[in-house]
User: What shape does this take?
Amino acid sequence: MEQPKKSVCEQPVFTDIFESHAEAVRNFIYYKCGDRDQAEDVMQEAFIKLWHNCKKVIFEKAKGFLCTVANNLFLNQVARQKVRLEYSKIPRSNKNVESPDFVMEEKEFLDKLQNAIAELPEGQREVFLLNRIDKKTYNEIAEMLDISVKAVEKRMHNALKKMRVIIKNI
Assistant: This one.
């Protein structure tokens, strides 16, 4: 007789998964970033996502789900940091030669852009940021994410399409 399948949504099963895999997921991210606090935060966020998606994740795939989610969360953090770093590198003069209207419009545009990027589904956002911020090629992205180049192209196409709708005249 076949054993009933374990449901990730059951508290004792989820607790078992946490106790079995939390340290491995935390170490996986720690080895990438070298920051214990960041690794702890990413690990906890990955488990929160597992809990929110427990009906979609089968027990046997829980560890893979956690590692993938943790990696994506980490990559998104790195991408956001790079956006901030790139923006901070733009030379600023002490004199504000732009009109106040221009400064306000620029700030509004940057806010819209950040919101549009945040609204993208995770896969599209990841591909968009890896390509546009990290300057990775589609081949490199496909290899990193373990997907086909066609999948990367489709995600990028859909990301750009969605962003054009969100931000007119991008």
